[in-house]
């Protein structure tokens, strides 16, 4: 029984050593990868973050300016009198109706009227 305990403990510590060594290998691989990326890019992660933030702000500003361009400004509080424009528009429409050609619709025949039928004369 004592032998199995030592075997169990030793196997546990062996597994722990293997896992720990795998972790250290992975950690060194990640560190090497980070160094390689830094060498390739030639920039520190802080500069990359700042550059990403600046690109984000430029995109945000351009989308806001495009989305606000189509509607009237909220800051304008002037009262516009539309009466003159309505009168001018109605005069223009009246002129257009007067110039309309009505001869292309055919003859103007009124619908037949419903008349009472003639009564039969009653002999005296």
Keywords:
124 residues, mainly alpha
In words, what does this structure look like?
- The chain is an all-alpha fold and 124 residues long.
- The protein has a domain at 1-64.
- The chain is built from 3 helices and no strands.
- The longest helix is centred in the first third of the chain and has 40 residues, at 2-41.
- Mean pLDDT is 68; it is low at 1-8.
- The chain crosses the membrane at residues 51-70.
- Keywords: Membrane, Transmembrane, Transmembrane helix.
- InterPro entries: CIF1/2.
Q: What percent of residues adopt helix (DSSP H or I)?
A: 55-70%
What is the number of strand segments?
0
Average pLDDT number: 68
Q: Which sheet architecture does the biggest sheet show? A: none
Q: Class by helix and strand content?
A: mainly alpha
| Rounded radius of gyration (Å) | 46 Å
Q: What string gives the helices and strands in order? A: HHH
Short description:
This protein has 124 residues and is an all-alpha fold. The N terminus is likely disordered. Keywords: Membrane, Transmembrane, Transmembrane helix.
Spell out the blueprint of helices and strands.
Blueprint: H1 2-41, H2 45-68, H3 83-98
């Amino acid at each position: 029984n004592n032998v199995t305990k030592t075997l169990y403990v030793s196997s546990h510590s062996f597994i722990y050593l293997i896992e720990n060594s795998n972790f250290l290998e992975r950690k060194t691989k990640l560190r090497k990868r980070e160094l390689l990326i830094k060498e390739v890019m030639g920039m520190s992660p802080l500069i990359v973050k700042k550059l990403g933030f600046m690109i984000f702000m430029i995109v945000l500003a351009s989308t806001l300016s495009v989305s606000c361009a189509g509607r009237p400004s909220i800051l304008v509080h002037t009262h516009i009198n539309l009466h003159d424009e309505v009168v001018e528009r109605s005069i223009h429409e009246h002129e257009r109706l007067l110039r309309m050609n009505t001869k292309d619709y055919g003859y103007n025949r009124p619908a037949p009227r419903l008349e009472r039928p003639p009564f039969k004369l009653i002999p005296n």
